[in-house]
Structure formats: C-alpha cells, structure tokens
C-alpha cells in the first residue's frame, strides 16, 4: 500500500533506534521517536476537529517540526499546503484563499502576519514553530495531547500535498500530489539518486521549496536513511565541513556554488570520499563548469531534470558509466541525462507531433512518469491542457539526441531562474502594472554573474508621468519576495512587438546580453 504514513511506520518497525533526523545544533530523533511523535500530532489534529481532506497550511522555513507535520498530515489523511517562507503577506494570502485552507502553522517571526491572514481568511491558528529544543512550547504541548494509536489510513490515491507552482501567465497553480504519486517519487529516487538503505543526507535548503522535501527528505525516509538538517549555513565551506564531519553519503550542490565546491573538493578529498551522490540542483550551469566538477568528484556526479508536477521526482538522470567510461551523448555535460526509470520523454512541435532525435530539433518536452501529480487544484481547464493521455506537457523546451540524452534549452518559455528560484514574469508585471504611472511593462531575465539570471523590468511610462527606478523597487518591495523584485529598470518609449502585438521578449533579452 502506498500511504506515505506507512513509509515511516515500516521504518520504525525495522530500525527503531536508527537516527531519522538530526540537526547540526544538537537535536536527534530516532525512527521510533519520530513515528510516535507524528502519530501523536496526527491525532491531535484530528482531535482538534479537523477531518480527512481538510487543508492545513504551513508558513515556515526549515525546521524539524515542519518535517513532523508532513508525516502527521499523511497519517491523519489531511492535506498540507506549504507556503513559501520568503513570501510577503500579500503573496501568502492568495495560496491560503485558493486552497481553502482551514488552519495555519507558522514560524515565530511570522506571528503578526499569520494573525492578520487568519482574520482575513477565517483560519484557525495552530501552535507556532518555535524553539525545537523547548520541551514546554505550545507546539510540544499540542503534540503531546494526541494518542499513540495510529489513525485510520487514507486511501493511497488521496490528496496529500498542494504544491503551488506557476506558469508564465495567470495565477499560481496548486499541483496535487497524492500519496501514491509521492511513493512513486521515492521509488524513482532510490534508483536515480543511487541512495542505498541507510543513506545519510545533508539538507541545507529551504523546506518552502516543496520539491526538495518530497524528492530528498521523504525519499530518504523511504530508504530508512538519516537526514542531517543543517542550521546556519555559512557558504560552501561550511557545507563541505559538514559533509566530512557527519559522514554524509548524499547531498546536492546548487548552481552558484559549483565553482567554489569544485575547488573545495579538490583541496579536501578526505572530506567527501564516502559520498555516493552529489546531485546538481537549481538552474542550468555552464557545461564547462559541470565537466570540471565531474573531473573532481568522478562517479558521484549526477545531473537530472524534474519539477513539482512530477511530485518532486526526476524525469531524466545521468548514469555512472557515462562519467567513468565516457558517454556517447552529443554533449554529455550540457545534457540532463536520459529518461529515468519508469519514465518516458518525448519532444513535440506546436502541433503535438514528435520531432526527430537529432540533438538540434527543439520542441516542448512531454513526459510520462508514475509520479505525475493528478492535476492542478481547481484548475480543470489548465489540467486538461497540461495532462493529456497520460503525458504531461511541461512547457519546457528542449531537444533529444540519437542516444536518448535530453537537453533542456529553457526553463519554460520566459521563466526567469535566479539563483535556483523561479521568477514568473507575469507576476512581477502584474505588480508593476498596478502603478498608475505605468503604461506598459515587460519583465525578462538578464544575465547575473552570481545568480545566473535576475529580473529586469522594461517600462513605458504614461504621458507626463514622473516615475523613477526607486519608486518601482519600493512598490515591488511591498508585494513581492526579494528574489522576484527587479534589480534593474529600463524606461523605454515602446516595447518591441510582432504583428499580433505580442511583446518580443527575446529582443529585450538580447539588449541586456549585449
């Protein structure tokens, strides 16, 4: 059976004394302890009047209580709605309203905003995530009140997580992750990530990035592994130190850190010899950087392509032999590997016809995976457009060579990937367009030395309007998370358009590149 709660229960039965979670500031939870605590929390939620299917939101960064909540919600048959910890109150409000959330957990520094949102949406505020070492906190008191008897299991096809993503147009969409789709992610990753039983994962990302929780953390519980949650990350040096100190066997390396981690790995080979996999994460990296990285870490190199619509799983992945023996790919270090186990990838043109696998014919990447979500929450029309006959039309563009290696040329047509964070131009444009002085606006990704890309706004002012860059930035600061705000503003007389009056974004991008 594919209920996610069973993953933890089975782990606790088989390895009760094995450490499931430890933090680098001293907290440790065994499988038995974690299983009991999450059962108590599940029963406390049900005892508080919530019913299976109710949406429970959480607005927090990385912390042990958040991972407990995932498994508690799974055991109780509830539905988790993660809200990005970087969001403003304005941004969080949409997700809470759209999902129909009935309650909210939150971290302590969001208390005032959480109360405001509770008033706005009629939410029940649940205990804040405070100090995880405090035995007498409201959270611990709430958890302790629950029974240790496992609640009735939800159906394996029941909704488990609503993970909000977005296209380049329209409102954010809630991808519907079921227990079964996520269990298939865990199966996929046990193979794709090369994680054996007992794998030790170093986690230093933000749990607001839902795919990392689904794809890394829950998948490590599936293989009865240990999660080392790193607190107070201080650059690549601190991560490399933790890899050695904690005897890590699996972790990830984001694009901005590839050059620094390559040099650190070269200087300190004694710290990472036990590692089985370094998976590259976030945005695309230059092939030359990836080649240098692979020359140092060897068979531990792993590249792939995936997204939230795959319940956090990979659709494509590289293999060990391609690194050690050489690949027959057209350009291995520019590729995202071949289709992962149990997955299929097609390249189609605008009419849905398959394109040749010649490495140069670019079309939409269409995928099959048993980990696909079941659609978008309350978005039947968009679901029907994106999920057809068992295939997911990703909106990403790419090509495939004759050997089956996939090359992702763009992260969706106009998506901006800044330091691994997705920035959707339409959302930034909608914010700026609210200003009465603005006649037209287009946002594109400009090159950035560290983050790869950064949002740049091209603005046409209304006649006689007085508007400067600082006014734009100040307005965006009120409504948008920091990574979404434009770092540069260009005032222009008009925007380039084609015959059908669509803005020619590629023209704007070329202006920035030159």
Automatic annotation (TrEMBL):
The record ties this protein, via PROSITE patterns, to: AMP_BINDING (PS00455)
AMP-dependent synthetase/ligase domain: residues covered: 12-377
Q: Name one GO molecular function term.
A: acid-thiol ligase activity
* Domain of life from the UniProt record: Bacteria
Membrane-traversing stretches:
none
Pfam families tied to this protein = AMP-binding, AMP-binding_C
The record's keywords, sorted A to Z, are: Ligase
Sorted alphabetically, which InterPro entries does this protein's record hold? AMP-bd_C, AMP-bd_C_sf, AMP-binding_CS, AMP-dep_synth/lig_dom, ANL_N_sf, ATP-dep_AMP-bd_enzyme
Q: Which residues form the AMP-binding enzyme C-terminal domain?
A: 427-502
Keyword Ligase set for record: yes
Q: What name goes with this protein?
A: Acyl-CoA synthetase (AMP-forming)/AMP-acid ligase II
